[in-house]
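Chapter review. Work through the record for Magnesium chelatase family protein before attempting the end-of-chapter questions.
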Amino acid sequence: MTLARTWSVGLAGVAGAMVEVEVDMSAGVPGVVLVGLPDAVVRQSVDRVRAAVVNTGASWPMRRITIGLSPASMPKQGSGFDLALAAAVLAAAGTLPADAADGLVLLGELGLDGSVRAVRGVLPAVLAAVQAGHDTVVVPAGNAEEAALVAGVAVLPAATLGDLVAHLSGRARLAPHARGPLPSPAPVPDLGDVVGQAAGRRAVEVAAAGGHHLFLTGPPGAGKTMLAERLPGLLPVLDERAALEVTAIHSVAGTLPPGAPLLSRPPFESPHHSATMAALVGGGSGVIRPGALCRAHRGVLFLDEAPEFPRATLDTLRQPLERGEVTIARASGAATFPCRAQLVLAANPCPCASAAGDAACTCSPLERRRYQARLSGPLLDRIDLRVDLPAVTRAAWLAGQDPPEPSAAVAARVAAARETAAARLGGAGLALNSQVPGRLLRERWPVPRAALALAERALERGLLSVRGLDRVQRVAWTLADLGGRPVPDGDDVAEALGMRLQRVAA
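Structure tokens for Magnesium chelatase family protein:
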């Protein structure tokens, strides 16, 4: 037989599409023609596959070989097609039974010695194969644990091309990989480590309960980074669906930690302030990769020294934070990644960043205003909670010798508040107070008018925008959920307004 076909998967973001690999052999000058919008890596796969086939002990057919990747209109990127190409070529050459790989989904990169190397994006690729009706996939042995996370599919791990050839020819069988027990989640920093800073601890608890964005300001050593790093430990462990979403993003990004195929804890990303737009949101000149915001999906994106980030880079977060997803367009296509993360910003109040606070500050009011103006108003308007942390005094440090409340106790209150909110919002397909659109907030879950009096006066005086008033109401609902109240009262609105209007003194 001179025609053979196998299947593989192409990825655009975390969405997979089935790719049919067809190989035709005909008389003519020996050579290989590869069609179907391959990128440079896929075009180079011909040389990798040829060397792997020869070094496995098989012969490379000296005929004209045409390889088609269908659908032809979809760009093909990455080295994950190598294994499918090799199987199709060997089947078309008669080395393997003609129909041995027909209907089989193959993923993996080939080394020149015939070894099958791990690739990125195996989890979303296997999910796409299952959704397309395939029940068996062959993956690199290094990706077997990741692929086995998907239910309803037989995962066959291959260490070498020779193993696959022996399996398809019937000389030996690849043993299906069974999903093993998941390792225990790594321990996270405890909120009990934070000395003092009652306002900061309260803000972190409210942010965790409602999914609100948070802005922490204060001098060095006040505990901004400590509080931000402890926020993921207050969030509930991810359910299986959410964990698969997060793991798929990290699989595409190539950031899955060794020995942890499933990410069950909310992720925490903290890029350096020199990060580019592509590093923060996503991009790349070839394969589009998720940025830090996408890798923080269902977790926390922490931007320390926020005013040091380029203003244009920070402003790219505005639309993704509102939509919960980011679409990155290129001439060759577009990729969409989910990015429903909690944003936590941290900043010093002024350029001198005196650890002693305002008393030792050497900056003029103009310098302070210029420093704070590096963060745009539209970005700050999307931040629900703003807290100024004072320098830790000796009295606060001595008071911290008594054990503060640990993360476990705070996380229990957060979980209870989230359950209350989910029960109230579930009929609208929502789970967190921060997700409630302004229209639904006013129509279905209005805050009592008497309780809103203080916030309405702030709106009249220009201290709040209409969007800001909606955000105050969302935070008030979170405070009510934490306090076990059926609706927010005036104290909840006052506390929410106080967290909204705090600013570093100029």
